[in-house]
Amino acid sequence: MPPPKSPMIIESLLDTDLYKFSMMQVVLHQYPAAQVEYRFKCRNAGIDLVPHIDEIRTELAALCQLRFTPDELLYLRSWRFLKSDFVDFLDLFHLNEKYVEITPSASGNGEIEIRIRGPWLHTILFEVPLLAIVNEVYFRHVSAGLDLSEGRRRLQTKIGLLRDTPDYGGCRIADYGTRRRYSRHWQREVVTTLREGLGTQLTGTSNVLLARDLGLTPLGTLAHEYLQAHQALGPRLRDSQVAALEAWAKEYRGDLGIALSDVYGFSAFLRDFDMYFCKLFDGTRHDSGEPFDWGERMLAHYQANRVDPRSKVLVFSDGLDIPKVMQLYAHFRGRCLLAFGVGTNLTNDVGPTPLNIVIKMTRCNGQPVAKLSDSPGKDMCDDEAYLTYLRQVFEIPAKQAV
């Protein structure tokens, strides 16, 4: 039987991904006046979300009533990389629904518009819970009463494949599935089952609430929005990626040292990720493009900069399933340290087709910002002229980011 419905999908402000808190602290300390805009996109064709707008708005209103509890704040204070003034700020913090607009798309095709506009410091925590709300509201209606036994069977198959295949005991995964989970209850069941079935082969979860409740390590560093915002916050545009990495290092002084490599395409990243950054950061994360080629180029880049790749972490997190994790592990093991973040394939593989939904930053301080992805269809910007200019500045041919 499905779990009983809760009056709220999100019951705690910890029910989000770690990198939201790590980025938010940088915003508080370095960019407290920044103004931003985010927009929602559903990449699936033919999904009608309009009938669910009122329910999504109701869940949003409930989300905005939440506050961090004393126990939650005490947990956050236990992390060495969060500073006391930031946790003090969270003690006063709440999300405000005045910053969010949810309307039917003008196209009339069932799509919805979600726009988040306001101070970055006060809007950064909307993305993950709002995506989780849209997912759960949608699947409540399209798969009401779904028997989750098929999802449990698939999950046990994945666990058995990773756990029982010879020579893969060192292959470890983490849960990255909060944003596109089938439901809150299902993600908790999945992560609990992974912990019991995989033991040390489960390294942790990006979800802070589950990490706390299940005694796991919370995982994450930074997301695309952080580097995108620096297109409007940094010095000249060409130096924005370097400025973002420098600001991160200034804040964390060696903690949370995984750099994201695909905001301007991988070639542009490698041009900026010089010997200084190679030595300073613990590793890099792959989130678009062909992963084997990315890994080979990253290892060669470390070698060219006189850094032993075996001391650095390659984090793979782009649309992974367990077979792909195992292929990557077999290819790269012994040549570097490896980490794998698996999302939708763990937390929304129960039968119905998952939603491919995102909320991306599109403007900062009134200026357009964008990601030039290594994968087709992942770019998201409302200003084509700016995209053209960005490609020119970072020497990326049109419609190509490699």
Label the overall shape. Answer: globular
Order of helices and strands: HEHHHEEHHHEHEHHHEHHEHEHEHEEH
Structural class label: alpha/beta
Low-confidence stretches: 1-5
What is the number of helical segments per DSSP (H or I, 4+ residues)? Answer: 17
The counted number of beta strands is 11
Kindly report how far apart the N and C termini lie. Answer: 47 Å
> What does the oligomeric state look like here?
single chain
Mean pLDDT: 94
Give, in spatial order, the strands making up the sheet with the most strands: 5-4-9-8-7-6
Rg calculated over all Cα atoms: 20 Å
Give a quick account of the main beta sheet: strands, pairing sense, barrel closure.
Answer: 6 strands, parallel
Question: What percentage of residues falls in helices of 4 or more residues?
Answer: 40-55%
Share of residues in strands:
5-15%
What's the topology here?
Blueprint: H1 18-30, E1 35-42, H2 53-63, H3 70-77, H4 84-92, E2 100-104, E3 112-119, H5 120-123, H6 127-142, H7 149-164, E4 173-175, H8 184-198, E5 202-205, H9 208-214, H10 224-233, H11 240-252, E6 258-260, H12 266-272, H13 275-280, E7 283-286, H14 291-304, E8 313-316, H15 322-332, E9 337-342, H16 344-347, E10 357-364, E11 367-368, H17 384-393
Parallel strand pairs: 4-5, 4-9, 6-7, 7-8, 8-9
Antiparallel strand pairs: 1-3, 1-10, 2-3, 10-11
Helix pairs in contact: 2-6, 3-4, 7-8, 10-11
Descriptive notes:
The chain has helices at residues 18-30, 53-63, 70-77, 84-92, 120-123, 127-142, 149-164, 184-198, 208-214, 224-233, 240-252, 266-272, 275-280, 291-304, 322-332, 344-347, 384-393; strands spanning 35-42, 100-104, 112-119, 173-175, 202-205, 258-260, 283-286, 313-316, 337-342, 357-364, 367-368. With 402 residues, it is α/β, with parallel strands linked by helices. Strands 5-4-9-8-7-6 form a six-stranded parallel β-sheet. Strand 4, helix 8 and strand 5 (202-205) form a beta-alpha-beta unit. It is globular and about 55 Å long. The relative contact order is 0.15.
